[in-house]
């Protein structure tokens, strides 16, 4: 998506050779028009998969996952990161480290919202090392649902996450692939 690349170049902040801050696009502020365009693209890429639910991990993936679910006309389910007093005691849970937060958290989805009959499209904002993605994939598999694919807005190709997910046989589609952040410069893969 050329418009997304352009916006990343204009608004992305390279914090280090490993970290790209996208607060103005994905992680703090959301551009509704760009987000809906990303949702349309994911819906187009996975249109032939019979998706019955879109899932994501709280919270940065919610906007793009919502746009995708809207286009596909299916429900959106997001994995929660915090247990509440009202949490389903029988929820599907997985413990995952968070690179950007520097902590380990539990992610969970209530069995009420995911079933063996579902064909799941997993949408996320960024894939780097892939810990959260692998955790949610484990939850999807334990539910008995079929994972039809993973769509990510930004793939950091210099990290192992996307490669390890693809090695599991999961179809992974990225809207933008970043080759390098070295020297404070954003370099895209073609």
Automatic annotation (TrEMBL):
Molecular function GO labels: xanthine phosphoribosyltransferase activity
Residues bound to xanthine: 20, 27, 156
Pfam family, one: Pribosyltran
InterPro entries: PRTase-like (IPR029057), PRTase_dom (IPR000836), Pur/Pyrimidine_PRTase (IPR050118), Xanthine_PRibTrfase (IPR010079)
Positions bound to 5-phospho-alpha-D-ribose 1-diphosphate: 128-132
Signal peptide: none
Alphabetized UniProt keyword annotations: Cytoplasm, Glycosyltransferase, Purine salvage, Transferase
Residue intervals of the Phosphoribosyltransferase domain: 48-156
Subunit structure: Homodimer.
Protein name per Swiss-Prot or TrEMBL: Xanthine phosphoribosyltransferase
Species of origin: Paenibacillus forsythiae
